[in-house]
Amino acid sequence: MTDITAGRPPAPATDGTAPDATEPPLDTDEAERSADEALGLKLGTTTRTEIDDYTRLMRGQVALFASAVREGGGVAARGSWLEADQLLGRGPADDCLVFAAWTHVRDLARLLRRLVAEYGEQLAHSAPALPDHTSVAAAGEAGPHGLRLPEPPGAPASEQAPAPVASER
User: Fold this and answer.
1) What is the mean pLDDT of the chain?
2) Residue 58: alpha-carbon gap to chain centroid
3) Is 3 left (phi over 0), alpha (psi -120 to 50) or beta?
């Protein structure tokens, strides 16, 4: 069993120093793996104790990813957070049927998969973009390998001669 806080740093010190603003990202691979394991639980061969263990794990990871998605997103992220809040608030009772507990852990695992995907999209959009070569070519200079972007229709003619193609060399 994995620790649900594996992707989070320890709590900040209470000695008055400011916490580190750069928090490491959550472990998406571990969350996806544990969600897959929870979805792989078979109703007839899994004990109630195992289902309860996975439920605790899924609840912790859903809470972590839901708060991370809510902090970094807009309206869609708020909807995912509300769904996570509702699902976490209506867990099965201790004396419920095994089927109800099994269904709940599967719902948590499916939600966790979606939250991990949203979290990954947010990280991809917040990452700095790599420089591309189209900006160089658009400025009138040759891009990589001497290639240029085509001129838009109606644009003033370029003052530089086009680069020779391989057959002209």
Assistant:
1) 74
2) 16
3) beta
- Both tokens of residue 9? 């740093």
Q: How far apart are CA 37 and CA 109, in angstroms?
A: 9
**What is d(CA 131, CA 129) in angstroms, rounded to the nearest whole number?**
6
> Which 3 state secondary structure label does DSSP give 100?
helix
Give me the sign of the Cα torsion angle 49, 52, 56, 57.
Answer: positive
The structure's pTM equals 0.61
Alpha-carbon gap, residue 43 to 46, rounded angstroms: 6
Any idea what DSSP says for residue 85? H
Distance, CA of 14 to CA of 51 (rounded, Å): 37
Q: Are 82 and 132 in contact (CB under 8 A)?
A: no
